Amino acid sequence: MNTHRKHILGVIGGVLAAQLASPALAAGLPQLDIATFTPQLVWLAITFVVLYLLMSRIALPRIGQVIEERQHRIEDNLAKAETLRADAAEAEASYEAALAKARADAHSVMVEVHDQVASEAAAKLADLSAKLDDNLKQAEDRLVQEKEKALESLGEIATEVTRALTEQLTGGDVSDKDISKAVGTALEARQ
């Protein structure tokens, strides 16, 4: 195993020696070489000026234009949204007004129908009351007539019953005049 390590270390050492012998590494880092500073600074200035001109003349105006367009679009959308919000508020107000008017109309129709039904009911009630009063008056008239008929026939019946009882009790005839007078007095006392 020791020989194996020695062999690997030998290969690595050879590669490092070959690398260190190259002229680029022997001189050190080229960007830090003082002799090459002037061309590096010139190229840095040229690259900076070109990039500055490209950015200021082409890229930044396009970016600014895109930002400005986006800002205008946002402002337009906000204005449209505000207009739509105002329209929605106006539509809501008109809806509420129409709803209130419909409620008031419905209430007035309901009151009108109620009054109409009440007046019709009152008219029917008055008509029914008049009919009932008329029927009651007719019934009272018939009752009075029937009472008078009954009283008239009651007088005749009472006269005959009295005659029959008197004849049976007394055994003799009693005059119709005396019986009618006694029955009339008794009936007048009852009324």
Provide the succession of SSEs.
Answer: HHHH
Number of domains: 1
Briefly note the structural class of the backbone.
mainly alpha
Largest sheet entry = none
Residue share in helix:
over 70%
Q: Count the strands?
A: 0
- Tell me the Rg in angstroms: 68 Å
Question: What count of helical segments does DSSP give?
Answer: 4
The averaged pLDDT comes out at 82
Low-confidence stretches: none
Anisotropy-based shape: rod-shaped
Report strand %.
under 5%
Distance between the termini: 161 Å
Describe the structure.
- This protein is mostly helical.
- It has one domain.
- It is 91% helix and 0% strand.
- The protein is built from 4 helices and no strands.
- The longest helix has 134 residues.
- It is rod-shaped.
- The mean pLDDT is 82.
SSE inventory with pairings:
Elements: H1 2-20, H2 23-27, H3 37-170, H4 176-190
Helix pairs in contact: 3-4
Please describe the structure with a list of short key phrases separated by commas or semicolons.
191 residues, mainly alpha, 4 helices, 91% helix, rod-shaped
Brief summary of the model shown:
The chain is mainly α and 191 residues long. The chain has helices at 2-20, 23-27, 37-170, 176-190.
